[in-house]
Amino acid sequence: MSDPATHSECLGYIRTAIAANCPQLARDVASVLTDCCQRGPADRAAIWADLSPDEREEFWQLVAASCSAD
Predict the structure, then answer these.
(1) DSSP for 6-67, written as a single string
(2) Are 47 and 10 in contact (CB under 8 A)?
(3) In this predicted model, what pLDDT tens digit does every residue of 2-55 receive, in sequence order?
(4) Per the structure, how many domains does the chain have?
(5) What's the burial of 22, exposed, middle or buried (CB within 10 Å: 0-12/13-18/19+)?
(6) In this structure, what DSSP letter does residue 69 have?
(7) What is the pTM for the complete model shown?
(8) What is the domain extent for residue 29?
(9) Are 6 and 42 in contact, with CB atoms under 8 Å apart?
């Protein structure tokens, strides 16, 4: 079971990266999200379910942009 506070924080981080339109921030958030989901306090599927399709797309476009810029 995921921790509701961690779930909300992860959503906030993703939305902050989108609002900032910052590839580096999105990349950092993706790393934190992976860590939280692997350790257990967050459920990736539940987080994605709470994001709109547009938010998911925008976030992954930012992550991809940061990776291709390296």
Answers:
(1) HHHHHHHHHHHHHHHT-HHHHHHHHHHHHHHHHHSSS-HHHHHHHS-HHHHHHHHHHHHHHH
(2) yes
(3) 788 989 999 999 999 999 999 999 999 999 998 888 888 888 899 999 999 999
(4) 1
(5) middle
(6) T
(7) 0.85
(8) 4-68
(9) yes
